[in-house]
Description:
This protein is an alpha/beta fold and 417 residues long. It is built from 16 helices and 15 strands. It has helices spanning 5-9, 11-26, 39-45, 67-84, 96-107, 133-137, 154-164, 182-192, 204-208, 245-252, 262-275, 278-300, 326-335, 363-367, 372-387, 392-408, and strands at 28-29, 56-57, 60-61, 88-90, 113-117, 139-143, 168-171, 195-199, 221-225, 236-240, 304-305, 314-318, 338-339, 341-343, 357-361. The strands form 4 sheets. Strands 4-10-9-8-7-5-6 form a 7-stranded mixed β-sheet, sandwiched between helices. Residues 33, 95-97, 100, 124, 126, 172-174, 199, 201-202, 225 line the site of pyridoxal-5'-phosphate.
Amino acid sequence: MSLTPLHRVDPEIAALIDAEADRQRRVLRLIPSENYASSAVLEATGSVLTNKYSEGYAGRRYYQGQAHIDAVERLAIKRAKALFGAEHANVQPYSGSPANLAVYHGLLEPGDRILSLSLPHGGHLTHGWKVTISGKVYDVAQYGVRASDQRIDMDEVARMAKAFQPKLIVCGASAYPRVIDFEGFAQIAADVGAYLLADMAHIAGLVAGGVHPSPVPFADVVSTTTHKTLRGPRGGMLLCKKAHRKAIDRGVFPGLQGGPHNHTTAAIAVALGEASTPEFKAYARAVVDNARALAEALLSAGFDLVSGGTDNHLMLLDLTAKGITGKAAAAALDAAGIVGNANSIPFDPRPPMEPSGLRIGTPAITSMGMGVDEMKQVAAWIAAVLAAPEDEAVRARVRGDVEALCQRFPAPGLALS
Ligand SMILES: *Cc1c(COP(=O)(O)O)cnc(C)c1O
């Protein structure tokens, strides 16, 4: 029994947090948007900065007492600009979704046209999907991937841009396993006089580590989360050209948000510091190497992968030929300690709640220190579980093996106290 204040004041919540930490220690977390933040990032997130109100920007606040908060936010901005080579950074968005909304609000008027990647083809909800505020406030057309190779067809994007004349083009994805041609998108946007927003939420850590081309030189605005491959706290960030600085800052505050989450800003600064080290470069490289190894092993085991493989941190298994849905596969694997998520595949004949795909990735298990040898083992376990998804003995055996492996690779930020 621990004697921390939380355990004394609220043993119920403390026990749930302990249980979740234990789960994160014992399973293979393959959801590609998840990771392990470092102890330093967690410490900053849990700091007294949460007590302070700071509406406005450094040097121009609506509340007194900002000496330390201004310094924290300036440091986060300085590190973001240096790490990504950006002209301007805004570190206040509460997360990736509000970051995108702030961009639309800052650059567009209601009813303006947006061209973006559709959700079922790998895009994000906030790129104008019909049930979201972005889909209701703006006039949205969406491109998809080619049926033949499941890659974005840049000629098709150019054709749609000419016909639709959007004011903003969005590129970037949540479930796209291939390199995104930011330069090509910038050319298309320039040809039709549209702004380009590149949403690098999933791949920011890969960009920081130099293993995916950067959108920063090409896009008017780059949005990102800070908690996926970038391995920071749950948050968001916007990078942009100097020309858009005012529109973007106003889009965030007062356009969309109130007081910034200063504890998160501090943790973002810590994560940006960590991401500028040689160790992080090696991490990003290993994430991609591991994803390729996992994809190759799954292909050898007879699985179909959307687009035939991966260039980044994630892959989409098309389970159609295996006669199992993504949801059933995700549930069987979860019972075996292997955690991914059901996901639509391009041109999925099945409904979004029962899709044909499974999305997995390597950011979290690479943070644990696993390498190519472990990826082969993980692929073999996935194949064993999905060959007999109802077989509890197989699941129990794999779960035991998974736990034994996780014990050899302790997760960062979760050291047993
Ligand atoms: C995760 C993600 C977001 C949204 O981030 P939240 O922090 O969950 O709001 C936005 N865009 C893309 C491409 C994402 O993958």
